[in-house]
Amino acid sequence: MVPSPPLGRADRWKLGFGWRELAGASLLLTALAFAVFGWYAFHGGFVADDWVNADRYTFHPDPGFWGAVDNYQTPSRPIAAVYVTLTYELLGMHFDQHLLLAVVLAAFLSIAYFAFLRTLGLGLPWALAAAAILLVFPSSDSTRLWSTGSQINLFIGLYLVAMVIAIGGRRRFGPAPSVPAVLTQVAASAIAVIAVGGYEIVAPAVLLSFVLYRWVGGRGGTLWRWLLDAVPTVLLLVLYTRKFGESDSGAGQLVDNAHVVLDGAVSVLAYSLYPSRFFSTPWMLVGVVIGLLLVTQVVRQVASPSRDRDAIARWGVPILLALAAIGIGYAMIVPVAERYPLYAPGVQNRTNCFAALGFSALLVFLAATLGAMIAGAIPRISAQVRAQARAGITAALILGVIGVYTVRVTQDADRWTQASEIQTELLDQAQELVPSPPPDATIFTSPYPGNLSIGVPILGGGGSNDGVGAFRITYNSADMNAFPLTTEVGLDCEADQMSQWNADNSKTDYGKAILIDFRTRSVYRPRNRRECIAATKAMEPFGPAYLRFDW
């Protein structure tokens, strides 16, 4: 990939694309985003951390906007704290508005990715295809279906914008630290650091920005630009990011974690190539990728110069670069691999959000390679017909991927929608059966499931606090708690208090607890251990932990 030729005044920054081209791509990608996800904004709702964030925004100990910022659940992400608080300040508890914003941010990320790839010199159709695949990439679709996850698209998109600005500044103003060059780089670095402060998964890419600067601009002007990126990024990570320091990060543990991440990445790659959970040998599909890569190198070395040779051989390096991008996308996960599974559905697939950029490009490059190989194998056709066949086969492969992925993300959206509907039903029935509970009550509910499916919670299960947040918002009470009772998390009736098995913050004195049995529409308020045991037996069997297991 090399920079595209200048496009006159529309490309004074030598980005490789003009503003009209960017506007056209933006319209197409935004239209695709709303075509695929727009309907969901009016049928989905708050899920998981959406309720936690709503609770922390609504009920914060210190007054004012900044008091809500200080109460954000992840202080290691200071920019995210401001952003999430701002979304609740502006949009309130309107689920549809939060989810419409998620669609806009999904489109923004794809547009930023398109601009980034064009800046690196990738051709228009390939960049547009990669951006479209990224938009419907199923292994990170929680970032489009989940309000909390959607912020990730904003911060990854800001990182891409920062790199486009930085590369444009290097090309326009040259390597020397002139005033315009420094000001442009300061702006780019500031945006990159904001991205790190929002979601630290982009930090390794920011710290490796010198590779991009050296690649697009040669030796000169790389060091000072990189220092403007690296120094504030490192300071931010040291000052704010604590969770990585709390992990067991010895050499042996890091090696083990790297193996876990590698296995997860292989599974995600296999699912990307063959999107079915029933495929049990992911390394076989990895072998296909390696085989195609080897073909490009063999053709480069052995075949005589021709258009057919170049059409195959040209994709070897891009495939390697895409694989490297996937590795960078997972680098920040290695120290905490035990907390962030890669090959997982629902809210957990946000772990693949940054690596998804590499996967999307890889799929385009593999489709182009395979299209060139198939077209090259067709006997007795002219060069012009072969070129048309190559383009047609590649387009069909890419459109097929986009179509299959769209079906997959729509199926996932249906699951999220069903979870939201069950949540609404649960909360409505709770208000009907217990219209005015004490403000400090702890409510235990059954038999609604704790999760619709793996990774798609229905007010939690276990120690999740989304049920707490949902009930506090519903009843407008800062001191209320609420927990589901399921086949995996029941109720302990102790001498002086009762609690859910898997939630320390559920311990409640007798007299303050309310048990709601939606099956029989009964409400219990146990005053001692005997009444607690009797109410528990009357409510059994509790609801399932998972309503379904397909994903």
Biggest β-sheet, characterized?
Answer: 4 strands, mixed
Q: Count of helical segments?
A: 20
Poorly predicted ranges: 2-10
Helix-strand pattern? HHHHHHHHHHHHHHHHHHEEEHEEEEEEH
Shape designation? globular
Mean pLDDT: 90
Distance between the termini: 37 Å
The helix/strand class is mainly alpha
Task: Please tally the β strands and state the result.
Answer: 9
Descriptive overview:
The protein is mainly alpha-helical and 551 residues long. The strands form 3 sheets. It has a 4-stranded mixed β-sheet. A 3-stranded antiparallel β-sheet has the order 5-6-7, covered by helices on one side. α16 packs antiparallel against α17. The two termini are 37 Å apart. The N terminus is likely disordered.
Features of the shown structure:
single chain, 551 residues, mainly alpha, four-stranded mixed β-sheet, three-stranded antiparallel β-sheet, 20 helices, disordered N terminus
List the helices and strands and how they pair.
Layout: H1 19-37, H2 49-58, H3 64-70, H4 78-91, H5 95-119, H6 124-135, H7 142-145, H8 147-173, H9 179-198, H10 203-207, H11 209-217, H12 222-240, H13 251-273, H14 282-302, H15 307-313, H16 316-331, H17 355-376, H18 383-433, E1 442-446, E2 451-453, E3 456-457, H19 466-475, E4 481-484, E5 491-493, E6 497-500, E7 508-509, E8 513-517, E9 522-524, H20 529-539
Parallel strand pairs: 1-4, 1-8
Antiparallel strand pairs: 2-3, 5-6, 6-7, 8-9
Helix pairs in contact: 1-5, 1-6, 2-19, 3-4, 4-9, 5-6, 5-8, 6-17, 8-9, 8-11, 9-12, 11-12, 13-14, 14-15, 15-17, 16-17, 17-18
